[in-house]
Amino acid sequence: MADAYILGIESSCDETAAAVVRSGEKIVSNVVFSQIATHQRFGGVVPELASREHLRAIVPVVRKALADAEQTYQSVDALAVTQGPGLAGALLVGISYAKALAFALEKPLIAVNHLEGHIHAVLLEERQKGNRELNFPVLALVVSGGHTHLYLARQQGEAWSYQIVGHTRDDAAGEAFDKVAKLLGLGYPGGPVIDKLSAHGNPAAVDFPPSQIKHRDRKEAGQPPPESPRFDFSYSGIKTAVLRYVETHDMQSTIAHRRAALTNSRQPKLDEVLALCDAQTLDLVASFQRAMVEDLIGKTLAAAAAYDVATLFVTGGVAANNELRQRFEEKAAAQGLPVFFPSRPLSTDNAAMIAAAAYPKFLARDFAPMDFSAEAGMALK
Ligand code: KG4
Ligand code: ZN
User: Fold this and answer.
1) What average pLDDT does range 162-178 have in this prediction?
2) Going by CA atoms, what residue is nearest to atom 11 of ligand 1?
3) Rounded CA gap, 94 and 25, in Å?
């Protein structure tokens, strides 16, 4: 089979991205235009602004991805675009543009689930490193601003299928990082700043009890264990616990001071943020991160044992977290499990992962009909 060059387009949230990937195994170009600067002062993604920014960025971003790859609109073999899940208006920008291009160029168009993209970010980079040996079953933790999902991933021939074995009942893990950062006056997005600050605090200072989740099937005492046990997450409780800690420890005035100081600084340096944090704040941040990391790892490893998996993937924006990566590797190794992460640039949203996930569909000629549309709540199967 000749090499296939797929142009991927991603616009599900606040990154406008385009990339060219060769045969699902080599990133030829990868362009990500982040809208963080636009949303920062609102402390989160504003959907209307996201759509408008995507509209502004999509054409230059795609052009740059083609130019960087030394490809043209005519030379690529197929186009791939994120269909969902994500913000409907944001998704529609990428989809409309990809459809128009595919129609005008008479090229096949492949619709990709964003979560499948995150899983394929791992596969793409492993293939790129020459690692083609993968032991199944694979358990993938997709952990980002919108998702905390556990999937068993299987491959049959070229086709991939996914079984969900757990997901968050309320907030996603990245959302908890973002909300805690916001309430502590640390700006947006929260993950990267909490990641950096945590190294300067004591992770054992504040005790956050692990989230308790009632699984319906476990309540029925005396029943045989379910065939498909669930490993769900819940992160709204820890956010409330941080808020309560702030209130009972009178931290509001230092938070207000920090928030005001950081609003005037577009992309604050770590030293600048550190200078605005006392030991109590750093301890709180480090303890919050430790609790998040322990919960994510604990549930994932419990699911890995229950489903007797051979390989772990951890992917999505939160997979960029230093402590998560380090402790996951240690704890998975203790269970004899190899764990794979994407590189940091491929952990957060990008289009290379979309072009990579499209490749098996390209081989199977699984093309999108021209009337397909955005699916904001799209499930992965
Ligand atoms: O995958 P992503 O780019 O977008 C979504 O699909 O949501 O993930 C963004 C999320 C944000 O919540 C951000 O705070 C979090 O990933 N994040 C991190 C880190 N870098 C990004 N969370 C923890 N530690 C990090 N280093
Ligand atoms: Zn994502």
Assistant:
1) 97
2) 145
3) 23
Q: Which atom of ligand 1 is found nearest the CA of 189?
A: 14
The DSSP line for 270-322 is HHHHHHT--HHHHHHHHHHHHHHHHHHHHHHHHHHHHTT-SEEEEESGGGG-H
- Answer yes or no: are the C-beta atoms of 65 and 107 closer than 8 Å: no
Cα separation of 241 and 107, whole Å?
Answer: 52
Q: What is the rounded distance in angstroms from the CA atom of residue 114 to the CA atom of residue 379? A: 10
150, 140 in Cβ contact below 8 A?
yes
Across the beta sheet with 5-10, the strand order is 26-34, 15-22, 5-10, 78-84, 109-113
Burial 326-340 (b: 16+ CB within 10 A, else e): ebbbebbeeeebebb
Ligand lying nearest the CA atom of residue 341: 1
Number of CB atoms found within 10 A of residue 227's CB: 6
| Residue 233 Cα to chain centre, angstroms | 16
Q: Which amino acid is at 46?
A: V
Domains of the chain: 5-133+346-363 (3.30.420.40), 164-218+229-337 (3.30.420.40)
H, E, C per residue of 154-185: EEECCEEEEEEEEEECCCCHHHHHHHHHHHCC
Ligand nearest to the CA of 175: 1
Q: Which atom of ligand 1 is nearest to the CA of 320?
A: 26
36's CB contacts (< 8 A; 6+ apart) are: 14, 188, 189
Query: What are residue 16's DSSP bridge partners?
Result: 33
Output the pLDDT for position 265: 73
Q: Is residue 220 predicted with pLDDT exceeding 60?
A: no
Q: How far is CA 200 from the centre of its chain?
A: 25
**CA-322 nearest atom, ligand 1:** 26
Q: What is the pLDDT of residues 257-268, one digit of tens each?
A: 999 999 877 778
Among all chains, which residue has been given the structure tokens 């009632």?
Answer: 214
Each residue of 276-297: pLDDT tens digit? 999 999 999 999 999 999 999 9
- Supply the residue whose CA is at minimum distance from atom 3 of ligand 1: 348
